[in-house]
Amino acid sequence: LTNAVITAVGGYVPDTVLDNAALEKMVETSNEWIIARTGIKERRIASDPRMATSDMAVLAIKNLLENYNIQPEEIDCLILATSTPDYILAPTAALVCHKAGLLNAFGLDLNAACSGFLYALSTGGMFIESGRYKKVLVIGADKMSSIVNYEDRNTCILFGDGAGVVLLEPTQDTATGIQNNIFMTDGLGGSILSVPAGGSEFPATAETVAGKKHFVQQDGRTVFKNAIKGMSNACKQVLEKNNLTAQDIDWVIPHQANLRIIDAVGERLDIPKEKIKVNIERYGNTTAGTLPLCLWDFKNDFKPGDKILLTAFGAGFTWGATYMVW
Ligand code: ACO
């Protein structure tokens, strides 16, 4: 039996900081409101228009390969979770393989919105568990600033840009690595959080652009409630599946959408705040980027054998929880 274990972590966030004071000048809002309602103080923005999602992904990969002394040719496979691909067609993963010099890797995109990294992590894990691949990169990367309407205070305060990446490798020690997951999808949520135009139903036209239908739109309150319910239930189910209680868990790494969502999930699970990793105050919601950016920021806190719960909720709706041992 082979398990997939995370052996390296990398990340990239753009230098440009968009703080709450800057947003106060763009829409009718306040630093106090944003902090109280979301926990976000600032986000990073890929302000250089030539910096696409693939470029952030490449910089995250370079960070990983350099820090762990791995050659790009060693990588077998790349799974890139994103909702903001460089193009509708071709896949961003192909561009990333080329730009990062992953000459021996095949690449594919995976879109499950804010749950994208979690789904990609398990998909990559199964490529390893099958015995067919030895080094799989799993990336979550999103340039949310490319689909955010900076005149809409309901959404523009929430999102940021960034990319995080992990390397999965095989281990024969099946007490470590990815252990189990619970994934759920409910397409009834599709209209509650979406970018309506630019796809096959409403291809981009002058009208869709004039109507701002190529930007993220959401019913925030409905997303909020469903995110709390979805993530806490998925966590409970994955714990049960592994005969664990919340007290057994060393760290929770939740999707960073809103600090109040994270706090509510922690309360429902009865897990103390010290065990829940949070960096939303610095990055906002980077969609597929939040979980790997948390792994990157806090990797030095994790010790071998630590029991970690990852959980996410996003558009679709898609949600889930993964239990792994560091
Ligand atoms: N500044 C000031 N006031 C604002 C702002 C703002 N930026 N945005 C909304 N308001 C106003 C609203 O207009 C409303 O005013 P009204 O009562 O006169 O209508 C009031 O504040 C309260 O609005 P609510 O929507 O009830 O505020 P809520 O506490 O729900 O916070 C928020 C809104 C932050 C969007 C929250 O619902 C949320 O985070 N939802 C989750 C959305 C999300 O994370 N989506 C991302 C993708 S999916 C995922 O990652 C989970």
TrEMBL record:
Species for this entry: Flavobacterium subsaxonicum WB 4.1-42 = DSM 21790
An example Gene Ontology cellular component term from the record?
cytoplasm
| Gene name tied to this protein | fabH
Spell out the protein name for this chain: Beta-ketoacyl-[acyl-carrier-protein] synthase III
Residue limits of the Beta-ketoacyl-[acyl-carrier-protein] synthase III C-terminal domain?
239-326
Q: Read off the HAMAP family from this record.
A: FabH (MF_01815)
Q: In UniProt terms, what function does this protein have?
A: Catalyzes the condensation reaction of fatty acid synthesis by the addition to an acyl acceptor of two carbons from malonyl-ACP. Catalyzes the first condensation reaction which initiates fatty acid synthesis and may therefore play a role in governing the total rate of fatty acid production. Possesses both acetoacetyl-ACP synthase and acetyl transacylase activities. Its substrate specificity determines the biosynthesis of branched-chain and/or straight-chain of fatty acids.
Provide the reaction this enzyme catalyses. malonyl-[ACP] + acetyl-CoA + H(+) = 3-oxobutanoyl-[ACP] + CO2 + CoA
| EC class name | transferase
